[in-house]
Amino acid sequence: MITSIPADASAGSATAPRTTQTAKLTWKKCATSDYPTLQCASVKVPLDHSHPDGRKITLALSRVPHTAAKSQGPLLVNPGGPGGSGLTLAGFVASSLPKSVAAQYDVIGFDPRGVGKSEPALDCKPGHFSPVRPDSVPATPALEKANVDRAKAFATACGKKYASLLPYIDTVSAVRDMDSIRGALGAKKINYFGYSYGTYLGAVYAKLYPQRVRRLVLDSVVDPVGVWYDDNLGQDYAFDDRQKAFLAWVAKHNATYKLGTDPAKVEAKWYAMRAALAKKPAQKKVGASELEDTFIPGGYYNGYWPYLAQAFSDYANGKKSDSLVQAYEDFGAVDASGDNGYSVYTAVQCRDASWPRDWNQWRKDNWAVYEKAPFMAWNNAWYNAPCAFWPTRSLRPVDISNKSLPPVLLFQATDDAATPYQGGVTVHRKLRGSSLVVEQGGGNHGITLSGNACLDKYLTAYLTEGKVPHGSGEADAVCKKLPDPEPLRAKAASSSSRGSTLHGLLGFRG
Q1: Which of 152, 282, 451, 490 has the smallest number of Cβ neighbours within 10 A?
Q2: Buried b vs exposed e over 435-446: b needs ≥16 C-beta within 10 Å?
Q3: Mean per-residue pLDDT over the chain, rounded
Q4: What is the mean pLDDT of residues 327-339?
Q5: Span 236-259, pLDDT tens digits
Q6: Which residues are catalytic?
Q7: pLDDT at 192
Q8: Counting Cβ atoms within 10 Å, is residue 188 exposed (0-12), middle (13-18) or buried (19+)?
Q9: DSSP state, 20?
Q10: Residue 387 contacts residue 361 (beta carbons within 8 Å)
Q11: Which domains does the chain have, with CATH numbers?
Q12: Contacts of 63 (CB under 8 A, 6+ apart)
């Protein structure tokens, strides 16, 4: 059932909702070895912003304060999800920008409502992803029933545990929280930098509070037209393409991995590994579904490919399964923070927009996707399946179209799997006066501050002076992608030291 969101926050709203008055913040040191100047605070906001004097919840905030003589104000940052913690992202962004740029901003991280150190934090069903789960591909009625029952049980647990909270865990409520943060900071306007789902959060904030946006950076852009059911189906095709790109890379490096030089044959060996694990999970930890969990992160970030390829090679070539199990523990396993992130993910996505409530529709749509793009289709279907049984009604998505903003800067890789390219193009059209910077041939998710100097020069110019590029085509500027990784020089005992700090912060699925 679809219900409209409150009139003052509706898609056609011409006026911003009233901002709740919040107390000033008290910042305390919460430094880490990586981020020695990080500070933390908390702010109370209404659970229901339409009743500002009612029940309050607490948001956790972080800050790296500006050091320049003149400040450009707060720069709120968000890593996506929904369900991603933004506290350490503030430290990452402040330390990754050029020092002269970071010095001009108070970089503000926050855990959105329900997330991480905000209170209360959701954890609907601890251990929901404990191995070994049923095979994700419902090839038999029994497998389908087992997976449907798991999804129903998660939705039921959430409804029983958080009946009073779930109606207020959604994007619009999180956006109103952001404006409460702005008020607590004493700022008339905010600057905002969001990745992944954070791009949708930023676009909705800009829709509800256009007069309070100073600068807006959206990296790896959610398609707002497909939230959230259609977007997830679209991801399945894009992740299948990205998996094929990984397998082609493995074939290219046959001298290292000994899996053959024909990508199609390498792919056949991957699915043979999957079939074997479905019958006999590795060390009673990695079955077919866990194998998918392990390799899906490679679709977000190709820096993981050498570790995943080594694990694949070892297993397929008859060596011990230790490296495969290690890869699962490093990339696929869900811990307590992951349980929290997934709980918020489902709560937001299921509440934000309408989902089919008839399981027959899911079955039809996902088998159709699977026939063309099998890699992630059913794994992703079950990840989102609680929304078929969610205990709250759905809101109407916000139309983020906007003619009232200062210049906005968008970044998008052409082969991004998590937020496919069309999302960046769509938002570029919907935000009048925005500029789109494209990483041609790039497939990573979250592309700024990741080593591509071409992309980062546009980000730096924008944050420093508000300058954006202007081009004549679909994109306003195009950057070449970074080279694909090389195989590890020596086999790593663990992949725990792998990859990029940014991609660890971004997490997956959002």
Answers
A1: 490
A2: bbbbbeebbbbb
A3: 94
A4: 97
A5: 999 999 999 999 999 999 999 999
A6: 196, 416, 445
A7: 99
A8: exposed
A9: P
A10: no
A11: 1-8+25-510 (3.40.50.1820)
A12: 27, 38, 39, 40, 41, 90, 106, 107, 108, 109
